[in-house]
Design a protein that fits this description.
Chain lengths: 111, 114
């Protein structure tokens, strides 16, 4: 299993601004998933993009995937204070194999 | 929406004592996991469990750790003789069959070893 590497490690923005965070990975993937972790809580799955997709939307979330560059980005539009959390990408290999996580991007949205 | 539940939410124990952390995964899920997160650090994989046996484990998951699915609904993590460095949040997760299935996490058990 490979883990994604998120960038930047920390991001601080004003409420209402857009937040963009990036993920890079090393080997071919089936899909890429983004998760959010609020402080002291479990990770919550946000969105999944398959390897044959280039862009996906869910509410205020937009995910892009560039398999040629082995990278993905997560855009949160019109951020809210409640979006303050750490965000992680993961590239699950499938089946029972382990899913590993990087250090994440710690997003702070200032009201 | 079904969710993964973990008990207790906080466990304090003395060094050398045994602890059992409990999880109830989502009922139709087939793959089960334990993760650990030391304060301020990343979420680390401990072990995965499928078809009533361990399918993969990390270097952290040494002989002091064991997992069990005793009754078809609960999934437990036992630490036989806790050490100070075992203090962490422990998260259980489960996943349905299918390569696109995401992990569903519980809200964790905060283990404090004194």
């Amino acid at each position: 299993s490979q883990q994604g590497e998120e960038d930047p490690q920390a991001l601080s923005i004003q409420e209402g601004e857009n937040a963009t965070m990036n993920c890079s990975y090393k080997t071919s993937i089936n899909n890429l998933q983004w998760y959010r972790q609020n402080s002291g809580r479990g990770l919550v799955h946000l969105i999944l993009i398959r390897s044959n997709e280039r862009e996906k939307h869910s509410g205020r979330l937009r995910v892009t995937l560039d398999t040629s560059k082995k990278s993905s980005s997560l855009l949160i539009t019109a951020s809210r204070a409640a979006d303050t959390a750490s965000y992680f990408c993961a590239t699950p290999p499938g089946g029972y194999q382990k899913v590993t996580f990087g250090i994440g991007t710690k997003l702070q949205v200032i009201p | 929406e079904p969710e993964v539940t973990q008990t207790p939410s906080h466990q304090v124990t003395q060094m050398g004592q045994e602890v059992i952390l409990r999880c109830v995964p989502i009922s139709n899920h087939l793959y089960f996991y334990w993760y650990r997160q030391i304060l301020g650090q990343k979420v680390e994989f401990l072990v995965s469990f499928y078809n009533n046996e361990i399918s993969e484990k990390s270097e952290i998951f040494d002989d002091q750790f064991s997992v069990e699915r005793p009754d078809g609904s609960n999934f437990t993590l036992k630490i036989r003789s806790t050490k100070l460095e075992d203090s962490a949040m422990y998260f259980c997760a489960s996943r349905a069959q299918g390569g696109d299935s995401p992990l569903h996490f519980g809200n964790g058990t905060r283990l404090t070893v004194t």
